[in-house]
Specification:
Length: 134
């Protein structure tokens, strides 16, 4: 599974987005340690604040399937003319399960792809003393 293929899976997953309010489809493909891929899309609600992003949906789905270690994530926004990075809440959420070197690839509909890392997206990550109590 290379990063191009992972991004293609994210784009495909965006087709399953439920986003009648924003009309902004997002797909995520999460590469797990066992080389399986969990895909997900954003799911909105008429109570707008309840929307769940594709990234968080993918992580929750993977963990519910018993997968807890991850190699990379790709995020695709076919309705954006620019590469869309994970929102702040998703950065925090992803950081719970991965380290700073974790690759995060994202792109929109214009063909540009950004390859970043969790450490770049969430520098000065904090609250490790709480996570270490697990
Ligand atoms: N969204 C995601 O799913 N992931 C992102 O990285 C950006 C935002 C969703 C939330 C909402 O359903 C729609 O995109 C517009 O914000």
């Amino acid at each position: 599974m290379d990063s191009t293929e992972l991004f293609e899976m994210a784009t495909k997953a965006a087709e399953r987005s439920y986003s009648p309010y924003s009309r902004f489809r997002v797909g995520a493909a999460l590469l797990c340690e066992d080389d399986s891929v969990v895909t997900a899309a954003n799911v909105e609600n008429r109570s707008y604040g309840l929307a769940i992003c594709a990234e968080r949906s993918a992580l929750v789905s993977a963990i519910a399937q018993g997968k807890s270690k991850f190699k990379a994530i790709a995020i695709s926004c076919p309705d954006a003319a620019y590469p869309v990075s994970p929102c702040g809440a998703c950065r925090q959420f992803i950081s719970e399960f991965v380290g700073p070197e974790f690759p995060v690839r994202f792109g929109g509909a214009d063909g540009r792809i950004v390859d970043s890392t969790m450490g770049e997206l969430l520098p000065h990550d904090a609250l490790h003393e709480l996570a270490d109590r697990k």
